[in-house]
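Marked as duplicate of an earlier ticket. Keeping the data here for the record.
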Amino acid sequence: MDLLRTYSNRPYEEPRVRRLLKKVQASQGLSHPARSADPAPRRSRKVAEAKHPAIVDGYLAGRSVNELAAEFGINRRTVLGILTKQGVNRRPTGMSEEQVLEAIQRYESSASLATVGRALGFSVNTIRKELLNAGTPMRDRHARRQG
């Protein structure tokens, strides 16, 4: 019925359709209204308290938040919430100084941003941002120096 109201340009016909539906249900011996074909809304999945130590242990062992989220079938934000609730200090995100220096060296030896990113496990955008922050001049797409 809600579809009739939502998608019809004749909402005044809704009461007539409802009466007709009730007649059909009565003739078929149905006492309940017709059920919608729409699936029930998804409910968030709660992570059992018993699994919290496994999530914390996995994180402390070096596993990423995304890996833990995939393993337990939950959102990464849920993993972060559990870690915060358990008092776990987050690992720093981004590149370390050593990684930035390695990225600069690779980039200056003609490797592309994508190649450097794959080698170090970071996105092209992260590599570019860190190289620019370090003052490394960027090449254009044809490997010529800009500026």
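See parent ticket for discussion. The first helix runs from residue 2 to 7.
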